[in-house]
Amino acid sequence: MRSSTCLLLLLGMQLFILVPIEANDFSSFLSANASLAVVVDQEYMTMRGENIMAHVEKILSDIIRENLRNGGINVKYFTWNAVRLKKDFLAAITVTDCENTWKFYKNTQENSILLIAITDSDCPRLPLNRALMIPIVENGDEFPQVILDIKVQQILNWKTAVVFVDQTILDDNSVLVKSIVHESSTNHISPISLILYKINDSLRGQQKRATLRRALAQFAPNKHEEMRQQFLVVSAFHEDIIEIGETLNMFHVGNQWMFFVLDKDPRNFDPDAVTINLDEGANIAFALNETSPDCQYTLNCTINEVSLALVTSISRMTVEEEFIYGEISDEEWESIRFTKQEKQAEILDYMKEYLKANSKCSSCARWRIETAITWGKSQEHRKFRTDPTRDAKNRNFEFINIGYWSPMLGFVCQELAFPHIEHHFRNITMDIVTVHNPPWQILTKNSNGAIVKHSGIVMEIIKELSRALNFSYYLHEAAALKEDYFLSSSTSTNESDELIGSMTFRIPYRVVEMVQNNQFFIAAVAATVEDPDQKPFNYTIPISVQKYSFITRKPDEVSRIYLFTAPFTMETWLCLVGIILLTAPMLYAINRLTPLKEMQIAGLSTIKSCFWYIFGALLQQGGMYLPKADSGRLVVGFWWIVVIVLVTTYCGNLVAFLTFPKFQPGVDYLNQLERHKDISQYGLRNGTFFERYVQTTSREDFKHYLSQAKIYGNGQEEDIEAVKQGQRINIDWRINLQLIVQQHFERNKECHFALGKESFVDEQIALIVPAQSAYLHLVNRHINSMFRMGFIERWHQMNLPSANKCSGKGAQRQVTNHKVNMDDMQGCFLVLLLGFTVAFVSGCFELGYRRFRASRKRREFTN
Ligand SMILES: *[C@@H]1O[C@H](CO)[C@@H](O)[C@H](O)[C@H]1NC(C)=O
Ligand SMILES: *[C@@H]1O[C@H](CO)[C@@H](O)[C@H](O)[C@H]1NC(C)=O
Ligand SMILES: *[C@@H]1O[C@H](CO)[C@@H](O)[C@H](O)[C@H]1NC(C)=O
Ligand SMILES: *[C@@H]1O[C@H](CO)[C@@H](O)[C@H](O)[C@H]1NC(C)=O
Ligand SMILES: *[C@@H]1O[C@H](CO)[C@@H](O)[C@H](O)[C@H]1NC(C)=O
Ligand SMILES: *[C@@H]1O[C@H](CO)[C@@H](O)[C@H](O)[C@H]1NC(C)=O
Ligand SMILES: *[C@@H]1O[C@H](CO)[C@@H](O)[C@H](O)[C@H]1NC(C)=O
Ligand SMILES: *[C@@H]1O[C@H](CO)[C@@H](O)[C@H](O)[C@H]1NC(C)=O
Ligand SMILES: *[C@@H]1O[C@H](CO)[C@@H](O)[C@H](O)[C@H]1NC(C)=O
User: Fold this and answer.
1) Which of 116, 310, 396, 648 is the 20 to 30 A CA-CA neighbour of 627?
2) Where does the Ionotropic glutamate receptor C-terminal domain lie (predicted)?
């Protein structure tokens, strides 16, 4: 009694200790036999009209006896599919219908039992990493199962699909539609939206083609819109469909086409011949029926094969365990040996490996998948250029076998069905042509003339494209000849004579020539978009818009000699004088009319003294006396209010006028040019789109300008000194002009130039792709997303001059720091001088007057 309690306690303790550290409680094959359950559903077997339980027992025991060299297997047989298996079963082989198979799978999951299920056709596959499912597929009825497997194994990651199916196939496979629309959450099959189109395959000849064309035309892309569609075709008419689809431009980089080829013999099928009219960029895959015609399917055979696979796998694992066990100590063995799940995963892998190599009976049905590798093939770096093998449009296509489908293993693929959709150009190296044209393309070369570094706005776009579209590239410089260079015009070799900034209007002739041969994926040049419909190449969407403006001398500041009068207008000054002249007599009168004599102030008893009083108060000299009468006080009080207002506004305004200097009117808009007679020379840079634009415009000022303009091509002709003197105006890209201003500011720390307020002529700048390039829409889509993510704006900011230093914020700072200088104060000093002079003159008068008075008095006195 006591000892048993003790034992229980110990056991309890052991459990307590063992559970938290997750011990590996599944014994290894060395210490215990593997246990296997075989469940053959009796009901299902009667329904099928077969009874194989007895055979199964015989088959299994034969196999175990003959093939199991190491370890042992205990097998238990059940005929009822609702049986609950205990935890210590390693695996189970079941033969039952689809529904019960799934039920059984869900029940055994918590006990972690490896399931090998033989079941009906058209059954969604059990999770591939947890079970092996073998649907019994009748010969010729495999489509529903194939479609289900496509969905379960996500061979085609499609959200929408257009399905073309022959009428007869649909009639033969009643569950085909059901499996196409099948969706499930346990298997993570998301629903797809579907357009199912039945092809009446009894039609022949013209009628057939007309029907197909009508059907396909509904999905044809219109010219400027990129559509991405997926097509699944199960039809005997695949050749017609490809041909008609091609004439409707339905094979482009966005579309995916999956064809099930129904030819009985796959050797008759030549993908190259079928796709002969297709252009590069097509995504097309074929599934070919490789079923061997003389293969007989039996349940016996399948069970035999599967059991053999299982037994050999277990045997193989046991050998491995024995080998490892012999090498290491017991403690180590305990810590490294497989858990049940790991063991099952390993067995599953071994079984699949075995079945791939050895399966004979249930792999009767077999569909091979071939997909076309087409993208970038003709532009691939020096790969096919030299020896085009065939003279067809698809001569560079390459069809690769990506894997196969069989009922036992489902799809076994080593590559994506449409590799280009996911991997785009698959890291091939493309040839790209370019020219040096900062800041768009900046090429840095080493002493051998090889390009070692590239940057600039266009190059950043190329780099991003290559990242997004998964290709590498090799740059070819087009400007081999100096004359082709549109930048360094003429033969001048004087560096300092070259114009700064860039132009994109004239694309070098060599670039155009090279692009036309369709050997280059893209021309990485910034080019002005002009008459896109008449060019032997295509433009991408614009990557930049540049505008023109003009540069003139910055207008001079207004003279500041009268600055001190600036706060008030002329009328205000006159009124001020007026009110002084009015207030003085007023004060005099009020003071005089005071009824009481003692209230009168002696100091205000004359008009003159009143005037001085008012004047003095205005200039804040203060008054020595105040009227005693209320009336007088009121007048003086209100005068003081007027004084306060006047002085405050004057002071405040004076500050403002000091801080913000005023300028003479400059040329803000081109049509103001008439008014500026001193500007006598008009300049226009050579090679501008502006020149071309003016020929079609209706703006008179442009036409007038162009007719007078001198086209300049180098620094000497540009004559920036004349602009500085105010005799000349130049038209160029705003960014180029900003560069000039910036350069002069950095050199002289002064701002002598002003750019026009007006920007005119939007010049669109784009990249160039060869005519008929399959990838134009693709490139456009990615450029678009670069815009949306703000990349292109950022590259513009990095490469183009920022808002120039002589305007905007830079100028603002300069204004707030404005120091009052002699220019500002001169008027002030002059007024003081005037005051002195007036005072001196009046002093002289006063002196003379006194002398005169004194001499008269003396004369009176002597008289
Ligand atoms: C293990 O299997 C062998 C042969 O398959 C058998 O002889 C042996 O009795 C089995 N052992 C147990 C414990 O079931
Ligand atoms: C595939 O080929 C086999 C043998 O040629 C044929 O029996 C079977 O019907 C074909 N399958 C389909 C779906 O046509
Ligand atoms: C298919 O075409 C044949 C021949 O033109 C016609 O007799 C038949 O009615 C059509 N079937 C359907 C379903 O339209
Ligand atoms: C299955 O195989 C057993 C012998 O292993 C044989 O007797 C039986 O007839 C076979 N059954 C079928 C349906 O072929
Ligand atoms: C680029 O293509 C290669 C070759 O197909 C592929 O292995 C790689 O995953 C792709 N990279 C990306 C980012 O798609
Ligand atoms: C892509 O190709 C380049 C050069 O051909 C190579 O250096 C790079 O490793 C490749 N990348 C991938 C993901 O294959
Ligand atoms: C380049 O221009 C500068 C200034 O205009 C001049 O002094 C120099 O001689 C010129 N050099 C040549 C090679 O023309
Ligand atoms: C490409 O250029 C050709 C001829 O210049 C023109 O007809 C075609 O519309 C252009 N393609 C696109 C997509 O703009
Ligand atoms: C403008 O440039 C072109 C080509 O570079 C040249 O032929 C032409 O003479 C230049 N015109 C002027 C006025 O410099």
Assistant:
1) 648
2) 570-836
